[in-house]
């Protein structure tokens, strides 16, 4: 039996305060989206690897190649909703909470990704 899935509130789903006109509302939505997108992307993507000083290394997901590998870190200085950092081999990173990571791990343990990965093995 699959455990009950946790629902994690997302800052992307927060309500936008009412604006005076439709144009103001659209501008406010665009500004909020741009802020959220900036907060979730790594500004060093085009200039080199993500700096990892101050992060606690947890795991390297090695594909046994020489081009770099995705890695998992914890950022003890980050807010709870951005504590987990996963870097890829292109220099980009995503951040999430430990609760969100737990959902991914639980889903993987229960076979949610098995069909997707069947051809990769």
From TrEMBL:
<keyword id="KW-0732">Signal</keyword>
<feature type="region of interest" description="Disordered">
    <location>
        <begin position="28"/>
        <end position="52"/>
    </location>
</feature>
<protein>
    <submittedName>
        <fullName>Uncharacterized protein</fullName>
    </submittedName>
</protein>
<feature type="signal peptide">
    <location>
        <begin position="1"/>
        <end position="22"/>
    </location>
</feature>
């Amino acid at each position: 039996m699959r455990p009950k899935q946790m629902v994690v509130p997302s800052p992307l789903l927060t309500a936008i305060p009412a604006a005076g006109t439709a144009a103001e509302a659209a501008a406010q939505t665009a500004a909020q989206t741009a802020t959220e997108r900036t907060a979730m992307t790594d500004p060093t993507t085009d200039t080199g690897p993500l700096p990892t000083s101050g992060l606690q290394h947890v795991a390297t997901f090695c594909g046994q190649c020489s081009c770099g590998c995705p890695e998992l870190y914890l950022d003890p200085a980050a807010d709870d909703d951005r504590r987990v950092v996963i870097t890829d081999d292109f220099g980009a990173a995503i951040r999430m909470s430990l609760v969100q990571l737990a959902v991914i791990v639980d889903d993987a343990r229960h076979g949610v990704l098995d069909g997707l990965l069947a051809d990769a093995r």
